[in-house]
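Researcher: Good morning. I'm working through a list of sequences from a screen, and I'd like to move beyond sequence-only analysis. For each chain I'm collecting a predicted structure so we can compare shapes side by side. This is the next one on the list. No need for commentary yet; just the structure.
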Amino acid sequence: MTALFALATSFLWGLADFGGGLLTRRAPALTVVVASQSIAVVVLGAVVVATGGWHEAGPQLWYAVAAGAVGPVAMLSFYKALALGPMGVVSPLGSLGVAVPVGVGLMIGERPGLLQFAGIAVAVSGIVLGGPELRGAPVQRQAIGLTLVAAFGFGAVMTLIAEASTTITGLFLALFVQRVTNVAVGGAALYVSVKRGARALPQDGGMRVIWSSLPALAFVGLADVAANGTYSIAAQNGPVTVAAVLANLYPVMTVLAALVLLKERLRLVQATGAGLALVGTVLLAGG
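Model: Good morning. Structure tokens for this chain:
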């Protein structure tokens, strides 16, 4: 079950990142974050009411609040990086955040078997092989810095959200609280940004672009929510070290989507990385 839900997480995050990266090429990154998460709040609110999730409220929801505060910073940094650099370069670096939940898992006493340790090493090597050369234009260096900030944030969110609930209905409530906090923090940042002279709407097309992008914004927001949910289930039903590594295979999906839909060129090292990630997945699942 851990492997299945963790791989579902990587699939959903990969598609969400691809969609978010495309949207930030048309609209300001903060606007994309706030709009996509606002749609998720509405949907999750309806789910919480329908399932009676309010009854699961408790001190553990502070983990969801913390995840919600960190999330917008990570998403904003990542979407800006995706808009600046090739997705096939940025996305693999973003998955370096796997070090946070894996480190926490090891600190709390998890000890994967030899086969799983081998799988972790192979999978992580595959994930980061798509990384960029450090030589190049300032835009690329800026994208690298933003991606590393996002990676740490993503790792922190994974660690926090896994602690925010112990039941399915509680998970719906935790995801709702996380998203409400996302919108509050992201909305405040957007307000400050506009006050300082930045644009909240696309320069060309304005609000019309946002309305026409609503289906894509909804997909990005809901796919990200679903990924957080499947990861939480994976982490609660198996070793965090295994769940985190498998969930962080999402760059493979983002790279493949960019390859197929945007015709981005896949370098040999990236193809090798995808192959290693697959081998690592097999080792982890088999261990």
